[in-house]
Amino acid sequence: xxxxxxxxxxxxxxxxxxxxxxxxxxxxxxxxxxxxxxxxxxxxxxxxxxxxxxxxxxxxxxxxxxxxxxxxxxxxxxxxxxxxxxxxxxxxxxxxxxxxxxxxxxxxxxxxxxxxxxxxxxxxxxxxxxxxxxxxxxxxxxxxxxxxxxxxxxxxxxxxxxxxxxxxxxxxxxxxxxxxxxxxxxxxxxxxxxxxxxxxxxxxxxxxxxxxxxxxxxxxxxxxxxxxxxxxxxxxxxxxxxxxxxxxxxxxxxxxxxxxxxxxxx
Length: 266
Prior knowledge:
This protein is of the alpha/beta class. The protein is about 35% helix and about 25% strand. The protein has ten helices and 15 strands.
């Protein structure tokens, strides 16, 4: 197992369990205790965990994995969700994309949609195949090479965990635009408590995207449903469509539908 793969596994286990012991996880991964101690020390230097005597615990109450360590989790489900979300977008629309692994897959699905690629929109004349507004640097970077798309990036301060721009500079751009559709990536979506993120600054930008959009789509795999997180984004009533995977529990789907949300499972 490579170091990067081992680190990803360690961080995912840490999020799941809250605490790891060196000897126990070394046996689980089939490596030496010295290797795990070294991994824990290096991850602690990056402030991704807190070292304890004999192990490690999660870093802080609102712990989240950096985006680069989350890309492989539920990858197949996220790609199916992304294609279904991309199919909801009509040529010529203005689309807002928040940051996150699922919305990054949505951006990639939009980039390869044949009908959009065929539209040789003239961005300079104001007739692009799509206008994409995002606060995610990685999404903007991937789509900027597509000449048929007009890419608008909000201002703000970049968060290392998610590559998202946050803060009042982002607000200044979003206050001056309107969107046909906002696509939200969330860490939690609950019928009663709505959509949420780990970080309050990200949640604030996501909330503005919702407010500026005619339609709101949440792209979330089934592991995010029925969960709560620290920073509130919007109420369930603000969500028009939820696109999730087929592992979503029927009673959970039914709860969202009864709240007025159209649920698409893929």
